[in-house]
Amino acid sequence: MRTKLIALVTGLLIVTVSACGQKGTASDYNYQRACEAFFDEDDDQKALELLNKHLEEDNRHADSYYIRARIHYKAGRYTDALRDIKNALQYRNRHTRVYECTLYGLRGKVYSRMELYDEAISALEEAVRLAKREHKDAVQNHKFELGQTYYIAGKVEQAEAVYLDMLKDDPGDGAAMVGLSRNCLDLEQYEKGLEWLEKAETYDNTYAQIYRFKMQILDKLGRIDDAADAAIRYWELDDDSPIALISRYAGKHYSYGVAKVSAMMNRNPSDQRWIFLLIQIHEDHCNYKKAISLYEQEERENGEHHLISYWKARGYSEMGEFEKAIAEINKAIEKSEDKTYVGGRGDIYRAAGRYSDAIADYSVMLSEDPTDGYYYYSIGWCYELQGNLEKALDYYNRGIDVDKTYAYMFLSRGDILEKSGHVKEAKADYEKVLELDDAADDGSCRQYALHGLGMDDEAIEWMDKIIENNPEDAGCYYDKACLLGRMGKTEEGLAALEMAFRKGYRRFEHLVHDDDMGPYRNSGKYKDLVNKYKAIYIEELNGGDEGGLPSSL
Length: 553
Hints:
This protein is mainly α and 553 residues long.
């Protein structure tokens, strides 16, 4: 919020002065048009072209350097941004419209993005000092950026000192209180953090960031329904709030979250955001049947769209309804020029066990971008599932050659190398996975690498941390079953597999081909478990329970 505010204030300052009835040269005209393109039309490329023209005629125009620096900053061209900020500071004069503190503030944000935190802090401290002299209304904004940078740099105590200083100047500054609550969240001081947020609410209960941290703190305190209410309030106030994060807290108590979001959807029938949040909650709980029915409702009310066809295809694929999934993804491909849908169809073919078709689609995607590691990995995985380890290894090698950041490729190559007796090379790949994969979240493969390195206790601890962070994700429990199967802990693994089924895992075709299920296949318990949930799955498809946790359990 503060970032947008300071940008708006600066933008208004420049546009207002530019629009004054002054006589201008041709170069002034280009500058004024650049301001209109940047601030009014949100057309950075047009603004950049006009600023370049202006600076060709007047290479000492500080305000042009400032706006161009902002364009470079937004585009991630940080060296160019710093060069323009330096020029703006050098050529400032009595006609310059941008404040010196604003230039130092922007320099601080650029350095922060570059993770040069000492330089960022130095620039922002100077911005605060200058703002006190030349632009008092901006002091709190620059202090807030300074506090944020201290926090990102891991200097929590210094961040707290800045936020407390902000409250001395403005006892009702909600951003400072939210900053303090976030520190408390990190320090596990949940009650204290909640006090800061409730105080911030008394000043302004429309400040969305209050509820972003309130939902997390209430969840930590075990107040699940209150956390859901806070998440829903965050979604209501901030159009840019991340739907996956909101759904995680709003849907933790499934029936409560569904009821609350349904009420908001009925209260705001013209706001499509609520129906998509409700869909996300259903999908998080593997209730794809209900999610698809809502997608169809959206289509009836607003017409078909390629994104909805794609999302429906994913839902049908998760349900094991592969013919319907392929029909929907084909509709998405026909309606849109977006090639990524072809890759999505490849994922569906792979889930259906149609590996040759999947490879064909992934190959199309590789021809579009020969540097995309995901598609090398996906083709390699398909060959591996077919039992063709030589071809799989070839694609993993080729993928790693162009993308050395994709942890799963190193893991998969390590597994093949280990099976073929190349233990030293496999160990190097597993260690690379540990280097790349340090987030205990859905999609992590670190646990397998830890097992490959003989660190089974650490592997199980990591797997449990992933599940703790994603308690409703059926795939995480399936991953635990795979991990325990590799370790030979089949009894514990079957318990994890049953929990995956209870949470809605329905990829029965994948079970047939996945090597990680090998340790279980001769087990009567495994066969009984799979047959039981196949029967439940058939009941779901025939109109019984609408997916997710079967009502009989």
